[in-house]
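Recall from the previous chapter that SMILES is a line notation for molecules. Here it describes flavin-adenine dinucleotide.
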Amino acid sequence: MTRKILVVGGVAGGASAAARIRRLDESAEIIMFEKGPHVSFSNCCLPNHLSGMISESEDLVLMTPEIFKKRFNIEARVNNEVIKINRDKKTIIVKDLITKKEYEEAYDKLILSPGANPVIPKVEGCNKPHVFTIRNVVDIDKLNKYVKNNNIKDIAVIGGGFIGVEIVENLKLANLDFNITLIEASNQIMDTLDYDMVQILHKEMIDKGINLILEDSVIKINDDNIKLFSGKEIPAQAVIIAIGVKPETKLAKEAGLEIGETGGIKVDHNYLTSDKDIYAVGDAIEVYHKITKTKTRLPLAGPAQRQARAAADHMYGIPHRNTGVIGSSCVKLFDLNVASTGLTEKDAKNAGIPYDFVYIIPGDIVGIMPDNSPLHFKLIYEVPTGKILGAQAVGKGNATKRIDVIATMIMMNGTLEDLKELELCYAPAFNTAKDPVNYAALVGLNLLNGVFKQVPVYKVRELVENNAFIIDVRERKEYEAGHLINAINIPLSELRERISEIPKDRPVYLHCRSSQRSYYAIMALQNMGFDNLYNISGSYLGICLYEYYNDKITGRKKIVTKYNFK
Ligand SMILES: Cc1cc2nc3c(=O)[nH]c(=O)nc-3n(C[C@H](O)[C@H](O)[C@H](O)COP(=O)(O)OP(=O)(O)OC[C@H]3O[C@@H](n4cnc5c(N)ncnc54)[C@H](O)[C@@H]3O)c2cc1C
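With both inputs in hand, we obtain:
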């Protein structure tokens, strides 16, 4: 018997589900409804149109209804909005947005993948014509034309999440001398990173000429400027709102489908809603977090596509193992690659999971190779089990590869021991013989086994202000090029001759450039009977990056004589 399957939403989840169903069932009648004019476009590449990296907006559209019909015998009805679900009759009501006519369509199975809508703040001026949100090709085309055809000079982006950050970067890369301000209400952009790691991004923003404003929010949008809560007025002839998304649940709610505790459509193991003939996937649903064991939402393309396949498979009796999500993501910010997976330190704290973390700054590739650069890598693990909970990587090199390894480890319930023994490929152009992820595991195991103690980079200011005993074990020239204001310099190469300068009756904090030499120093000193030593994780490079942005914007007293970012 021919099954009739209707799909609401024609992009990441919807198009994936429709295509998978066709692969499983040649005889099914499949109709995909999309209220916009395009199906199957690359949401993720939308910001790249602003920089010109993707020069034509049409190139953002990956498939047309004609191709869907020819290749897959799937009918994709664009400009057709599904406005009602009649669960008792198993029909939907559709409005053709061109003819304005409404019609009814029956289904055997229905898949909802209506996505999410941008959150709009309740602020005067949000509906002005120079205020934009970005969700589809029409939106980005409109913004692109507006900023380029109207001699716009000042642009304000509100919200420092992925979309806001990508919009800022691509507007800057358009090379049109825009003055760009990014306003974020919290004390950091990109909440997928911890506060210590994100300082590297804050620096990158200001280095690239972005006016980054944190801990402030917009209260009014005027034609030529925006007014902030702090009283500041920021010139802006174009405003982009990117403060997050909320799941599109109107249809589901009106049809009486259950909504979950986080506001997304409630689904079971197989993405079935509370109606056994209706599935829901993508940004609109609520998902289960593998590590925190709580309900959450994860509006990302990879999960949407996997959920779509699983729902289609379930429809055809193919079993699916629902592992829950961990939240892996990445973004490029000018010269930096940024990636993270699993829990941040902040998340672990909020979830009440006992944890510790490693912050290392190894080279991305072998140091003598051209283009080598430091990779800032933070690994979070459970205490005392050593189970890996999450990681963050920032650098010019390959951050995503390292985070993908950690994501795989988390999905396999890996521990520091597993990561230490993980055999990865190596050649100097790609990494180091001991890859940063292996190296992080070794440091983590040392900490877990009490081999040495550490203090985080965010405690250093307090140490300096309290005149703690800090030893900088870098060589003299490095020290002279910039050091902590009260650190004494005992280079590792002079350590054994200068033992008498090191007290035993108070804590001693050691650092070098990236914490490796200070670890060697600590091991040597501990073997000589010292037992009150702490390695400053992140060391001088980490300290300079951590302090820089707040030093700049607050004008506070610096704790370093001179920054050194190399
Ligand atoms: C600018 C931008 C950049 C992004 N970058 C990334 C990235 O780099 N990596 C990543 O993983 N994710 C990224 N995402 C998120 C990713 O695009 C989404 O998670 C993914 O598209 C969700 O798939 P979906 O099918 O749930 O929703 P969508 O892909 O948004 O599709 C939903 C579609 O349903 C349509 N629709 C809604 N209601 C109806 C209705 N009643 N009738 C008919 N049609 C309807 C909508 O018009 C929409 O086109 C980005 C998103 C944006 C906006």
